Amino acid sequence: MKLTTLLGSTIALAVSLHTLATPRVEIVSLPTEGTTEVEVSGSGFGLFNGDIVSWDDFESHPSGNRIAGLKPVSGNTWSTLYNYAGNGIHIDQDASKSVSGKQSVNVDWTVDPESIRAFGWAGKGPYDQLYISYWRLMTGNFVAATSNHKQFYLYGNKAGFPQAMPLIPGGQKNWGFYNNVSTGLITAENPNPNNINNLGWNWDNTSNRMQRWEFFIKLNVPYTEKNGIIRAWLDGKQGINNTNYQVRHVDGEFIDFRLGHMAQGFFTTAKAWFDDIYIATTQARVELCNADNYDSCTIKHIQYVEPTKWSDNTIKFKLRNAEAFKEAKAYIYVIDADGQVSNPIPLANPAPPKPIN
Predict the structure, then answer these.
(1) Which of 14, 179, 197, 336 could form a disulfide with 239 if both were Cys (CB 3.0 to 4.6 A apart)?
(2) Signal sequence: where (predicted)?
(3) Are 118 and 81 in contact (CB under 8 A)?
(4) CA-to-CA distance for 51 and 70, rounded, in angstroms?
(5) Which residue in 169, 277, 162, 287 sits closest to 217, CA to CA?
């Protein structure tokens, strides 16, 4: 009996220590002749522990096609909010508005003018947590006093709730994150009800430029508690970090995701381009960055890893967006399912020269 108890305690301790282990990268092997994948070797990577809900760089889709019905590289088939079937959401071929190649998705509120226009998926999951990443270029005549702007909207399975969205609240100028339940009133108990970012992200410094946005949303459990998580990064810098947020006030989970969404008050001029959209139920991923300290990275490109090619000590993937690091060193990082970041490993020559014709 004592031996069984001791063995059980030992196993529990080992599991606990493994859970707390920080991922460590030891070797990064670049593709050689006859191979196409990078291999990252190390320890403590843990399980992928989730699914990729969406991944698309839009390079495989015919230029000009409407987005509805297109199948991404991985994940849920794209659809549009309100089943919109016009040209206001389509594949656009313009390298200056793309991150991975020449194509991106153009959401254009000025075509068939409407204040709400979005794409994504519906009726999936349900999901109790999501890591969301995309590149975004937004233009338009936004005026803080009269405009209401949302980047995306998450809807739930309880009469549309829970909900979650990054937004510039009506009449304000800075980005925040909102659950469509909070009153928005600032109180001693709730000093930042709209999760307004602490880095000064506003319309002026997030428009007319291609930027990478990242979000991690985890629902509070149980739904009556204030232990949900909202985190947001812009070009590698974290500006929102709330680990005590009551994301949901009902016993529901997310089933719909809609990107583009609201351009109220300026939809006659609003246009946006989105690229490299990645959504997963886990934070586990590989990043290629331009600094040897993860928090100092200002250029970050996610590396698409098929879940079957992720193990506790080896990860394999095809290198992406290496050309973004021609002017700087590039470093590989492994982030585990809990969001813990590995040590960096530099890549000697991540952007090999193009062959001479």
Answers:
(1) 197
(2) 1-21
(3) yes
(4) 20
(5) 162
Strand 285-289 and strand 300-303: pairing?
A: antiparallel
Sign of CA pseudo-dihedral 273, 259, 283, 71: negative
Longest pairwise C-alpha distance within the chain? 74
pLDDT, position 4: 38
Torsion of the alpha carbons at 177, 55, 19 and 308, rounded to the nearest 10: 170
Q: How many CB atoms lie within 10 A of CB 223?
A: 18
Q: Which amino acid is at 130?
A: L
Evaluate whether 53 touches 130 at the Cβ level (below 8 Å). Answer: yes
* pLDDT tens per residue, range 221-245: 999 999 999 999 999 999 999 999 9
Rounded CA separation 114/74 (Å): 30
Residue 73 backbone dihedrals phi, psi, to 5 degrees: -55, -40
Domains of the chain: 22-49+284-347 (2.60.40.10), 52-280 (2.60.120.200)
330 contact partners, CB below 8 Å, separation of at least 6? 288, 289, 290, 322, 346, 347, 350, 351
SS3 for 12-30 is HHHHHHHHHCCCEEEEEEC
Helices and strands in the chain, H and E counts:
2, 24
DSSP 30-62: ---TT---EEEEEE------S-EEEEE-STTSP
Q: Is 61 in contact with 70 (CB distance < 8 Å)? A: yes
- What percent of the chain has pLDDT above 70? 90
Rg, C-alpha atoms of the chain: 21
Is the CB of residue 117 less than 8 Å from the CB of residue 107?
A: yes
How far is the C-alpha of 51 from the C-alpha of 31, rounded, in Å?
26
What digits encode the pLDDT tens for the residues 321-344? 999 998 889 999 999 999 999 999
